[in-house]
Design goal:
Blueprint lengths: L10 H4 L1 H25 L2 H9 L2 H15 L8 H5 L1
Helix pairs in contact: 2-3, 2-4
C-alpha cells in the first residue's frame, strides 16, 4: 500500500462533468427534501434537507484535494512521454 501522500485521487473528483453531476444530484435531493418537508409539515424531512448539505461540502473537499495534486492527466499521457 502506498503512503497517504503518494496516493492518487480518484478520477471522478478531477472530472468537471462528473463533479457537476454529483453536485446537481445533491442539490436536487436537498431541494426535494426541503419542499416535501414544507408541504407535508414534517420536520424530519426538513432536517434531512439540512443534513444532505454535508455531502456537498465533503465533495468540495475531495475536489480541492484532487486539484492540489496538479492538473488532471490525460489517460494517453504515458504514451506521449515515451
Amino acid at each position: 500500500m502506498r503512503p497517504p501522500e503518494r496516493r492518487h485521487p480518484r478520477a471522478w473528483t478531477r472530472d468537471p462533468f462528473l463533479f457537476a453531476l454529483c453536485l446537481t444530484f445533491l442539490g436536487s435531493v436537498t431541494v426535494l427534501f426541503a419542499i416535501a418537508g414544507r408541504v407535508f409539515g414534517d420536520p424530519a424531512l426538513v432536517g434531512l434537507s439540512v443534513l444532505s448539505v454535508g455531502p456537498a461540502f465533503w465533495l468540495f473537499h475531495q475536489r480541492s484535494q484532487a486539484l492540489a495534486h496538479g492538473p488532471p492527466r490525460d489517460r494517453h499521457d504515458r504514451r506521449r512521454r515515451r
